[in-house]
Each structure stands twice: as C-alpha cells, then as structure tokens.
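Attaching the record inline, Q. Sequence:
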Amino acid sequence: MIVVGALSFGFVPQAWAEPVLVTVTGAVGKPNRGARDDFADALFVVHGIAFEAARAFTRVDLAALGQRETTVVYDVWPRPASVRGPRLADVLAAAGAPRDGTVTVQALDGYSFTLPMEMVESTPDMILGIEADGKSLSIGGRGPAWLVFPPGLVPGQEEDHGLVWAVFHLRVSPPEEK
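Structure, as predicted:
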C-alpha cells in the first residue's frame, strides 16, 4: 500500500548502495544525481536548497579520493584531534567544480561558512574529515563530515570559527560576473 501510494505521486527514490554523506550543488560539472526530490530530499527542502543536478558522495566515494590526515588543535579545544579524509579540493574536483568562485560548506543545523576556491586549492590540510581519532564520524558527533584546517588560515578567524561539523552540503558558486 505504501509503495502504491508512493508511485502514485511519482516518487522514485535514488538508489545508493550506501548512505550519501555529502552532496555538492551549484556549479557542478560532473553530477551523478538529478534534481531535488521534495519528498526524498527533506533536509534540502527544510533549508531551501533547490538544484537540478548534484554530485552525491558516500563514505566509499570520499575514501576513494585519497585520504589525508592532519592533527589540529585550537585554544578552545580540550585536546588535539587527528582528522582523516579527502582534501576539500579533491572532493570539489571530483564534482567538476570550477577552480575559481566560492564554496559554501553547510551543516545539518544550517550553519555555513564560505571560502574562496583559491584558498581551498592552495591549502593541502583543508580536509573534509570522515574520521577523527581513528573512528568514523557520525551524526550526533561531528559527522557525517567535518571541515578542518589549520589555525590562522582564514584572516580574522576567531577560535575555531569556520570548522564546520555535521557537514552535509557543499554549494559551489562561480565567480561573480564583472
């Protein structure tokens, strides 16, 4: 009965072998999924994120991009964290994002931080972490993904501002027209 009801509304869910952790929208040249589905993509609806095509990444997809590990610590933290995952630049390259413009990294709660693509490209330790201290990140902790980078990277950065945790969405914006 549920299936019949779902089909009557035209809902056909995207089939993934594993859960999608991060979705890249905006200026994406290598999409692997179609437009937002208002039923299946409830979190995107809640946050007002519309898209016609996107690149979705599972944990396996992110792990296949190559892993970097970095240890970061900020004054407000009780201890250092050893974070492992692909470079943010590699995730964006796999999505076919342009090398200029900006990327906005968004958390499940709506918090977001925007970075210029030049900074993303030039910072080897800007990681989209999927593990911390040898354990997979999970929702309820700092997962499904966690953007980390060295202290002092962003001019005027206060404490650990910009280290977005609970990341589920990356929005790529092309450079502004001049």
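The chain is about 15% helix and 30% strand. The radius of gyration is 17 Å.

More tomorrow.
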